[in-house]
Design brief:
Elements lengths: L17 E4 L3 E2 L5 E3 L4 E6 L8 E4 L5 E4 L4 E3 H6 L5 H7 L6 E7 L1 H4 L9 E6 L3 H5 L7 E4 L4 E5 H9 L3 H8 L3 E4 L1 H8 L8 H24 L4 H20 L10 H8 L5 H21 L8 H14 L7
Parallel strand pairs: 9-11
Antiparallel strand pairs: 1-4, 1-7, 2-3, 4-5, 5-6, 8-9, 8-12, 10-11
Length: about 325
């Protein structure tokens, strides 16, 4: 699917940005000096969106124009290409969900009275929309219902990269809906489990703990729920290396993890546990029988099959 020009509604164009006028530029005598759609260059940017830009045109003329009378040239040329909102108007992508499951605290066995139910899954867009100029969104999100669904290719790519959330989708015991195509994917989920888990999980935990150590020094506090999930991730990674499957329920570590979430475990004790788990993770990575990489060919064959099935109006 095409990549659209990065755009933010509150973006202030920098000096040198090529822009297109959305209105006619009319002189004092009422004569049109530059027609709608003229190209110019920003020569002075405002401090905020309430003030105009100064724009110079190819003939050397300059004018002051407010934000609502301009757009970036790159965005103007792009128009509707890759605009997935058009796709959403033509088809309700939520009707194309082939897999829905629950992950997060509910699946881990760490839920409290105020815990949300995090639903995740996969959707398979109709072939004609996937092939269209407008493309399809990589992910559907509904913040009100705590739901998110990845487009099938995006899901597979993340799984091949050992994304923890995606791998847990494949192994959670809390499956709410799966079409025959999704059932086939679940049956071959082991192809995504490889030694790459070691790099992905370890790297993420190390980077996050580095930030938290900075928070402890500068703010004297951390987000304990996030700390808990990082420790949980290490525990999960170790078992993946040793046993070749992705554990979701935390089982015997539940009480210690909840103590971290409540802020009852001292930071030094958490750090000691983390370092010990890293040592275990390193050792398990050296003895694991998991393959070096996931099975790209089988994942690719599955995707091609899914794309062919997307030709049908019925959900496979």
């Amino acid at each position: 699917m095409p990549d659209r020009v990065h755009y933010q509604p509150n973006l202030i164009y920098s000096v040198g940005t090529q822009v297109v006028t959305l209105v006619e530029i009319v002189g004092q005598n009422g004569k049109v000096l530059h027609p709608r759609g003229s190209v110019g260059v920003v020569i002075r940017s405002p401090a905020d969106l309430d003030h105009p830009y100064r724009v110079r045109f190819p003939d050397g003329a300059e004018d002051s124009l407010p934000m609502n009378q301009l757009t970036m040239l790159a965005r103007f040329k792009e128009s509707e290409i890759g605009d997935t909102e058009i796709t959403a108007i033509r088809c309700d992508p939520y009707q194309r969900v082939i897999y829905r499951c629950v992950i997060g605290s509910q699946a881990y066995g760490l839920a409290g009275d105020d815990s949300d139910i995090d639903r995740r899954g996969i959707y398979l867009p109709p072939a004609e929309l996937h092939w269209s100029l407008y493309g399809v969104p990589d992910q559907l999100e509904n913040d009100e219902t705590q739901e998110a669904y990845w487009e099938i290719q995006k899901f597979l790519v993340l799984a091949l990269k050992a994304n923890p959330n995606v791998l847990e989708c494949l192994y959670t015991p809390m499956v709410e809906m799966a079409t025959p195509l999704a059932e086939k994917l679940l049956a071959m989920r082991s192809i995504f489990v490889s030694r790459m888990v070691y790099q992905t999980y370890n790297g993420y935990v190390l980077s996050q703990f580095k930030k938290m150590q900075s928070d402890i020094r500068n703010k004297g506090q951390v987000k304990w729920k996030h700390v808990m999930h990082l420790i949980r991730l290490l525990l999960s990674g170790i078992r993946i290396m040793r046993e070749g499957f992705v554990p979701v329920k935390v089982e015997e570590h539940r009480e210690k993890l909840l103590a971290i979430r409540r802020g009852e475990m001292p930071w030094d004790e958490v750090e000691d546990w983390r370092k010990h788990l890293h040592d275990e993770f390193n050792a398990s990575s050296e003895t694991t029988v998991l393959p070096e990489r996931p099975d790209y060919e089988r994942a690719n064959a599955f995707l091609i099959e899914a794309r062919r099935l997307a030709l049908s109006e019925a959900l496979p």
